[in-house]
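Re-run requested by the PI after the first attempt was lost when the workstation crashed. Everything re-entered from the original request form. Ligand of interest: nicotinamide-adenine-dinucleotide.
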Amino acid sequence: MEKIFNYIGGKLVEPISGQYLDNYDPATGKIYSLTPDSDERDVEKAVEAASKAFPYWSKLSPEKRCEKLLKIADLVNQNLEILAEAESIDTGKPKSLASQVDIPRAVLNFRFYATAIIHFSSEFYETTGQAINYTLRQPIGVVGCISPWNLPLYLFTWKIAPALAAGNCVVAKPSEITPMTAFMLSKLCIEAEMPEGVLNVVHGLGQKVGAHIVKHPQIRAISFTGGTQTGKWIAAQAAPLFKKLSLELGGKNPSIIFSDCEYEKTLETNVRSSFMNQGEICLCSSRIFIEKPIYERFRNDFVQRVKSLRVGDPLEKETELGAVVSETHMNKILSYISLAREEGGEILTGGKRSILSGRCQNGYFIEPTVIEGLSFDCRTNQEEIFGPVVTIQPFETEEEVLNYANSVSYGLSATVWTENLSRAHRVASRLESGIVWVNSWLLRDLRTPFGGVKNSGLGREGGFEALRFFTEEKNVCIKIDNL
Ligand code: NAD
């Protein structure tokens, strides 16, 4: 059975406890590798290694750091297919998706921040007649990056790339549910001759490894992506230590479809935005609101399209939906489908576990599910399900649909479908959401601010926002006589 190792001080090492956790392939329900069950002693070693590496790495010129990160990007790119297959086995997602989205995006994350740092600048202010001020943006020191299971390498690199580019040394923890590609990246970092201790990857449970990273006094900033409850706990721990904090949390994203939308494009994109990656993307639409005049037509066409989605072995080319990430997660999603029934919802398609044959017969598959007839404020429409489940509801006015859309405690992303320009701007400006897409979904420009409002998080990632987060400002004021 393949063993995963921690990456500390430039070396692949066993956890000090010698203990391992089972790592499952969700498509088969079988254990296929072992993940270190690390604890505070491993975190301590990683912090020591990172602190030791910091003076060298932080003083290296941005161009030299850029070179190193580009080298890693190239190696990830060269290993794209192997990494995509590993990501598919670890998460259950279709391999085709991992090779078109997850791994190319990991390459892009490194390239984007490797080059962004050489264009990053800070501010200057002239205090007329008296002084000049300049603001240094210096690396923070040792920072912690904690990432979830749904887009493992994609989100892991989205954090570590800006942290490293800005000159910090990192102690990172991937999800214990999907550790494989972070381990493979550790090996590529060795191949790229990353200086020892600049990046350290400690595998293990959130409550052990993650919690120690959060509480460690020498780790001065935490960048976290994951669930809202975990984010709340992290915020409570980090606040008295005055750590910098970036929190990217859950969502319950609305899709608002007006009668004047471009019908075919809207239909096709809503199928994708609801079910891509089995609905396990924080940006997936989970509540679709359709204007009354086209409600029935859209509902029927949407359900027909969803029925034709192919749930299957993630390694097969034609598969559109793979397995959900774990048995626990599958049961959580199924319990929400039961709740929807209790709340009066009608299942238009899907609604149960999908049993496949052959090697995937014990896998954790769920039929893509569409539910109608629920009130906007019931639990099914308020709580994050994070699976292939979407609800649809009709609306009559802009005011009404804004009220529905904004009724949840979350505010990550929203999509608006209309050909009326004024309405698009008006609705976008009134949505309580960090990201709004008009007539599109998941159209990403890495320079734009990314993040949520309300219980969807704190702070923004993306572009120079992430470089600002991973640096500390220091203003230097120089008094000049007779200026
Ligand atoms: P999670 O909160 O359970 O875990 C996320 C990470 O935090 C994992 O590495 C986990 O081990 C670690 N962790 C758990 N408890 C911890 C603790 N006490 N201290 C420190 N670390 C701890 O989330 P998940 O189930 O892995 O991911 C799914 C969630 O992530 C969903 O809510 C989804 O919406 C959210 N998500 C948000 C975004 C975004 O950009 N806003 C992106 C992807 C996923």
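Saved to the shared folder this time. The pocket of nicotinamide-adenine-dinucleotide is lined by residues 146-150, 155, 173, 175-176, 206-207, 210-211, 214, 225-227, 230, 233-234, 248-251, 282, 384, 386, 412, 452, 457 (CB under 6 Å).
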